[in-house]
Amino acid sequence: MNLLLKLSVCESFEAVTHENFKDYLTQYTVLERSDKAIYKSTRQQSKNVVLINGMIRKKLRVVELVAWMVQG
Q: Where on the tree of life does the source sit, at the highest rank (predicted)?
């Protein structure tokens, strides 16, 4: 699986790295539609979508998140 991740976050959260997101992105396909991100999980869709969306918004304060998951 090839993973391309572009992540911009607030300066106050410096611990965010490519590796931090591997666990999330292996379970969630992140799609960008207009200027808001739609999170689609591979399991327990509605519950996990709310959890990951809340987690990213609250803890990471993501300014811009564009991720592509390409199976190779």
A: Eukaryota
0.70 exceeded by the pTM? no
Q: Each residue of 1-11: pLDDT tens digit? A: 344 444 443 33
45 vs 10: CA distance, rounded Å: 28
Q: Give the whole-angstrom CA distance, residue 17 versus residue 3.
A: 13
φ/ψ region of 61 (left if φ > 0, alpha if ψ in -120 to 50, else beta) reads: left
Sign of CA dihedral 55, 60, 63, 67: negative
* Rounded CA separation 16/19 (Å): 8
Q: Are 7 and 16 in contact (CB under 8 A)?
A: yes
Give the Cβ contact number of residue 27 at 10 Å. Answer: 12
